[in-house]
Design goal:
Blueprint lengths: L7 H14 L7 H7 L6 H16 L7 H14 L6 H21 L10 E2 L2 H34 L11 H24 L19 E2 L1 H8 L6 H21 L1 H16 L5 H10 L6 H9 L8 H28 L6 H14 L2 H10 L8 H22 L10 H5 L1 H9 L7 H15 L4 H10 L5
Parallel strand pairs: 1-2
Helix pairs in contact: 1-3, 2-3, 3-7, 4-6, 4-7, 5-9, 5-13, 6-7, 6-10, 6-11, 7-15, 8-9, 9-13, 10-13, 13-16, 16-18
Length: about 450
């Protein structure tokens, strides 16, 4: 407490860490950056050391999310270029046309705000609040695990040195995690083409395109740039419209992801093993553990069930967007080619997305996307866009994983009819017919009873 005398062991512990960070210890600062999963960039290493030194002096406790913001903005701005006025005009026109096309194929109303054209830095800053919300549970788990392992690995005679070291280690661990998250978001800003490109609602009821990344995406495809711009504009507006229309959806999705991340615990035994075997001159094993997710133990049964629900919801969202976009872009001669490029890109993901999966333990790309899109297409063909879109009006109406498996059952509920029998149903029906043919039918038995025994 502030009014209690301060133990000199706190200062001693801080001095040890400061000596280590200043290069007086056994580890080169650049090796520390490598072990933390960060690039061996002199400017980045210098910033890392400075931030860690600030963490040692900080009286706060936890993750410095402002550092993540700064890191993301720095990386995003390095390769940013100024968008030419002509290109901005083309994208603004594409967004206007996309809005009209969507009005023809969906009952989901337009956005109240004009879509934005963002630079990479603007995207990184605008989306960081959501990234920090999703990553915070894991960050705190890592920081607490570091403190626990430190205490368990320290000899009893040095216990006094660590009386109040927990806060220091949480600050250091939180700083490393914030630097990693900033690295991920900064790199993502160079890859994504729009606000909803990663599948989760990073912008609140708002649509945005990143002109520099749209141009990079279109380059080399052999497809007219204006067609690529129109297709991506339709996808982005469809995504943003859905989350504004289903106002409950954004909160439920982000809450589910946060709750999933809150259940993640760090494998302290693995961390202890790394600490015991750590070679200061060869930090590659530590770097591999940090960047590969090896410190996150296998998911529990509850986590796997929660993950399955999350993946289904993400697939339903992306499948709806795909279906609506396909209908809205029928006028584009090369729409199918652009759509296939988007699907391949989404399936493979990118380095930054893989890094986010490592940090939070969640893949952003749903595995059942094609099945979900096929379900939405079948529903559209059966009941029309308005009845289809009404399914997003309440959480209880949204299709389930079972509906993705069996769209005809969903269509039957919507139309009030019986579903078309599938191959298994027909086989059972034929078997029953065969058995039934060996017995008197109900009406045959009835006639026999009425007529009485033969010859009576």
């Amino acid at each position: 407490m502030p009014d209690e005398p301060r133990d000199d062991s706190d200062d001693e512990f801080r001095d040890m860490l400061r000596a280590f960070l200043s290069g007086e210890g056994d580890i080169d600062p650049s090796r520390l950056a490598s072990a933390a999963g960060l690039p061996n960039d002199p400017e980045l290493v210098s910033r890392l050391i400075g931030q860690l030194q600030q963490a040692l002096a900080s009286s706060g406790d936890g993750v410095n999310w402002g550092l993540a913001n700064e890191q993301a903005r720095t990386i995003a701005s390095r390769s940013s270029v100024v968008t030419l006025p002509q290109e901005r005009t083309q994208l603004e026109q594409a967004l206007s046309i996309a809005a009209l096309w969507l009005d023809e194929v969906t009952s989901v109303p337009p956005l109240p705000r004009t879509p934005r054209l963002m630079s990479r830095s603007e995207w990184a800053l605008a989306t960081m609040p959501v990234w920090t919300q999703l990553a915070e549970p894991v960050a705190l788990s890592i920081a607490n695990a570091l403190t626990e392992v430190l205490r368990e690995q320290t000899p009893e005679e040095m216990a006094g040195l660590l009386q109040n070291a927990g806060q220091i280690m949480r600050n250091v661990g939180g700083t490393l995690f914030a630097m990693q998250l900033g690295q991920v978001v900064g790199q993502l800003s160079t890859e994504v083409v729009s606000g909803g490109d990663v599948g989760i609602p990073l912008l609140d009821e708002e649509a945005a395109l990143i002109p520099q990344n749209v141009a990079a995406f279109a380059s080399g495809l052999g497809i007219p740039t204006d067609q690529v711009q129109l297709y991506l504009a339709v996808r982005e507006l469809a995504h943003a419209r859905l989350f504004r229309h289903a106002k409950w959806l954004r909160l439920q999705l982000l809450t589910s992801i946060t709750e999933f991340a809150s259940g993640i615990r760090i494998d302290t035994e693995r961390l202890e093993q790394l600490a015991a075997d750590f070679d200061p001159q060869n930090p590659e094993e530590l770097r591999e553990a940090v960047t590969s997710g090896a410190l996150i133990p296998p998911k529990t049964g509850d986590q796997l069930a929660a993950l399955a629900r999350l993946e289904t919801m993400l697939a339903l969202i992306e499948g709806w967007v795909d279906t609506v976009t396909q209908r809205a872009t029928l006028r584009l001669p090369r729409a199918d080619a652009v759509a296939e490029t988007v699907k391949r890109r989404r399936a493979s993901g990118g380095p930054a997305e893989s890094a986010f999966a490592t940090l939070v333990g969640l893949e952003l790309r749903p595995r059942r996307l094609r099945e979900a899109a096929a379900m939405w297409q079948a529903v559209t063909d059966a009941v029309g866009p308005e009845r289809r879109d009404d399914l997003w009006s309440h959480p209880d109406l949204v299709p389930t994983g079972e509906d993705v498996d069996d769209p005809q059952a969903l269509i039957a509920r919507l139309t009030g009819g019986a579903p078309e029998p599938d191959e298994f149903d027909r086989a059972i029906e034929e078997l029953l017919d065969d058995v039934d043919g060996e017995r008197p039918h109900e009406d045959d038995r009835g006639r026999q009873e009425d007529e009485g025994p033969a010859g009576s």
